[in-house]
Write a structure and sequence with these properties.
alpha+beta; three-stranded antiparallel beta sheet; 3 helices; about 25% strand; globular
Length: about 70
């Protein structure tokens, strides 16, 4: 998203407003700095911050981290 592939603003705004029911990631967003570079590269800083500000980790199943609104 920071690479200019798509406009991140609509998605980030929906996350900030809690309008997305569930965020499913293949990496732990709270510890993204420890994730392999290939996983971390998919997540823009703004997107990760929006998820962590408005959502909480509710499940970790295998390689999936599931976040729901607080």
């Amino acid at each position: 998203m920071e690479r200019g592939i798509i406009d991140a603003d609509p998605i980030v705004n929906q996350l900030r407003e809690g309008r997305i029911d569930t965020v499913i990631a293949q990496t732990d967003l709270e510890h993204l700095d420890a994730a392999p570079a290939s996983s971390a590269s998919w997540w823009s800083r703004a997107l990760v911050q929006a998820v962590l500000d408005r959502y909480q980790l509710t499940s970790h199943i295998g390689e999936l981290w599931i976040y729901a609104p607080r």
